[in-house]
Amino acid sequence: MPSHVINQDQIDDLVDRAIEARQNAYAPYSKFRVGAAVLTASGTVFAGCNVENASYGLCLCAERTAICNSVAAGQQELVAVAVSAVPLAMPCGACRQFIHEFGKDITVICVNADDPRQRSVRSIESLIPDCFSFEK
Ligand code: THU
Q1: pLDDT surpassing 60 at residue 61
Q2: Per the domain annotation, does 136 fall within a domain?
């Protein structure tokens, strides 16, 4: 049983914030714009977008910028993460591991930013089973 229960209004609000954040994506190389928003245990939402670089390996994913915004503001416990892209995109492997760090029951909502009814709602555990951890 998840320790945090989120309702449909919270999910819809988080999706809106992820779509809004996508407007700020800096993706001149891939042209693939991604927005993300995280809901913390205290009910606060933090947003992020992908930030690319001419040195391609430095590109930052939207999920990780949103989570870093949250952690930098002192909010380390996450309840849900929304990701927006066109077409709908699932978090990359690195982001799955990164999300898992901040809550084992996190709900991940991926949406098509042009058609937010097109969604995938998954638990982080199902997206990265048996991920790396110092504990077993
Ligand atoms: N990207 C994300 O923002 N999140 C992911 O989970 C996967 C990929 C970004 C990184 C890069 O700027 C662009 O999408 C293309 O890979």
Answers
A1: yes
A2: no
